[in-house]
Structures are given as C-alpha cells and as structure tokens.
C-alpha cells in the first residue's frame, strides 16, 4: 500500500470513525426515546415494510454504486451512465412499489403495511438520485464530507423530526418520515459535495463495463438480503408483528453498534482493496490485518453486550421489553461472526470473484432456512441459534475461498480470531463477576450498566495495550510500519504511537 493510499485510508478512518461515534451516541438516545413513545408493533410494521422494499432495492441500483468504486479507470461517461441508470431505475421502482404494495398482504396478513410500503417507496427515487454522488465520495475517499453530511442529516431527521412527530402522536409514521427525511438530506448534501454531471447519456459503451460488474453485485446483494432478513420474514409470518418487534429491537441493540463500527472500516477498505486487486500478496496482508483488528474490537464488545443484556434492555428500551433479553444474548454471539467475515466478502468484490460468492450465499440461504424450520419450536431464541450456526458455516466456507484466492492457510486465517476471543473471554468473565455482585446489591439498572461499561472498557484497553496477543502484535507492527509512524514524531499522538510500536518490536523479537 503506497504512502498516499495509506494516508487517505487513515484520514478516511478518522473522519468515518468520528461520524460513526457521533451517530452511535445519537442512535442510542433516539432508540431509547422512541422505544418509550411507540409500541413494539410500530417497529415491527416498519421492519416488515423495509424488508419488502429491500426486495426491489438491489435491482433498483443494479450494483452501480460498487461498480463506480471498484472500477480502476472511471470516465465522465461512466459517471453519467451510472447517474442516468440510478435515477431512472429509482423512479421505476417507486412506481412499481406503489402499484404492487397491496400484494404484501398475501405474504403478511397485515393490511396496515400497504400504506407504509407506498410512502417508504419514495426512498427509491431519493436513492436513485443520490447513489452516484455518494459512491464518488467513497471512491475518492472524501469521508470527511460524507461523515459531516450523514451526521447533520441524522440530527435533523431523527433527533429532530422523528422524536417530535412521535411525541405528537404520529405513531409509526414518525419512523417513516424520519427515514425519508434523512435520505433526502443526504442526497442533497452528497451532490453538493460531489458535483458530478447529471446530463443523461444513452451510449451503451458507457454502460457495459458498469453493468458487467454491477449486475452480479446486484444479484449477490439480493441473495445476501434474503439471507440476512429471512428471520424478519419468517417471524413476521409465523409469530406476528409483536414478536417481530421484540426480535427487531434485540437485533438492533447488538447489530447497530457493530454496523456502525464495521461500516466505518468497510467504506474505507473497499476502495483500498480495489486499488490492490492486482497485488495478491499485499492484499492478503491487508486482509489479515483488517480482520485481526476488527475481530479484536467487536468480539469483546459483543461478549460484553451478552453479559450486560438485562441492563441494556432495561435502560435503553424499558422494562416492557424484557422478552428481548434472551434473544439479545444469543444474537450477541451470532452477529459479530457475520461482520468479521465481511472482509472476505470485500476481497471477493475487489477482485471480482463474484460467482463463488453467489454459491456461498445460496448455500447459506438453504442452510438457515432448514435451521429455522428445525428450531422454530424454541421461538425467538431458536431463530437466534439458527443464525449462530449458519454464521459458523459461513466462516468455514469463506476461509476455503480465501485459501484459494489469497493463498492463505487455514491456520493463518483462524489465528486472526485469537486476540478477539481471548480478550473477549477476559472482558466477559470480569463483567459477569461484577454484574453478579452489583445485581445482588439490587442497584439501579443504570448504575450497573455504567459500571459494566467502565469496567469492560478498562479491561479491554489493558489487554490491548499491556497484554496484546502475538497475532495482534505482528499485525499492529506491520500497520504502523506501513503508515510511517516512525517518520512523523512531531505530534503528541505520533510520539505515543512510536513508543508503543517500539514495545511491539521488542516483544516480537523476544518471541
């Protein structure tokens, strides 16, 4: 990785992280407020409507977003072709969703879903006009501008309009209007930043390379959507809106922070990986480093969430959501695995190895469907267990593919999980012992949760800084060397990183 690319990647991570942290804090407040203002059925109806619309989303874009980022050489005609396609497809799918919305009652016996689907379908138009601008910002690693736009839009739409409308009694529509408003604000802000041509073009030569890659990406995204949202579809069909609302809130409590953490990295990693697509050895090194660091971060967080689930539910959602506690605990084991395999998927995208990715996703759909059927008698917890087992299978399948693509042995790939698993075990045990003590003292849930967060964070940092696993030392040492930390001792943080890097070198040489 060149120093220029590394510099852009670091800057992108910095700004994306800042935006992610800000959004994560705001989302906690928003989720807590809305959970007290709305009934579980409202979240269930919006979740069902979103799933129905996502059936069309992947074909409304045809993978052109990823094609713009992945393509090594991008011309002005390619940009015009991408915008023309996205805008037209977004309009067409909005009309189709409006006309076909009544057929949703054939899947779910809930007529109230129809008007929600029709209004939320406006997101197709908005997304069609904004997709090219946001993709260009990602391709050029302009994450500072993108983070500012997304953060400001969230404040106005969700913390402003959403909560106010819910307080005024708009019910489920407060969720709908907030999501549409944010999409519109992001569309305007992204275009102001990117300023690309909006003139239509109808020369097939400009479309061909984008659709060759994007059409397969669209199919893959659609299949992944089916896999990821199969639980929502089946729970809504079999157990109804109330149980779906319970599952949805438990899922979001662990998925949302993980999504924010990984989205920050993935938006930077995909363009970086794409620039290294022809350099297999370097790509393999970056893949191992990225996966090691991500596993080190999210496994301890998720295991901490599993232990602290009762306090998280009571504090964030309220006492009326206690049914979601066991579901949250199971999902805390399953969801981190899905995010860790994300980098393997990005490698496939960057190197355009898409046929194998299709095979893996289809296989997983069959597996998880079978598991849902076998474990449905266990209710929501059974759905969570099915997801956990299928994610373990996904890891094995992707490791086989990475062995083929990047020539990485199974041991090298499994080794990247060790720092996260070991640190997570220490964090979980420590938080569990603390939680048992504080719960026996019958302290308020908020006091216990704050104590859990402080203790878990302290133990996690101590493990990373004072007792890093050998696999983590090697990856950190390599990353610091590539970023040229030793050449930039002028800042306070630079000097701290230099000292930490030197300690890693000594430990590595000792071993």
UniProtKB/TrEMBL annotation:
Instruction: Give the keywords, sorted.
Output: Cell membrane, Membrane, Transmembrane, Transmembrane helix
Q: Which InterPro entries does the annotation name?
A: Poly_Biosynth_Transport (IPR050833)
Q: Report the membrane topology from the UniProt record.
A: Multi-pass membrane protein
Q: Which residues cross the membrane?
A: 42-60, 81-104, 116-137, 149-170, 176-194, 286-307, 327-347, 354-372, 378-395, 416-434, 446-467
Q: Which Pfam families match?
A: Polysacc_synt_3 (PF13440)
Q: Where in the cell is it found?
A: Cell membrane
The name this protein carries in UniProt is Lipopolysaccharide biosynthesis protein
**What species is given as this protein's source?**
Pontibacter aquaedesilientis
The record's listing under PANTHER family reads:
LIPOPOLYSACCHARIDE BIOSYNTHESIS PROTEIN WZXC, PST FAMILY PREDICTED COLANIC ACID TRANSPORTER
The family line of this record is: Belongs to the polysaccharide synthase family.
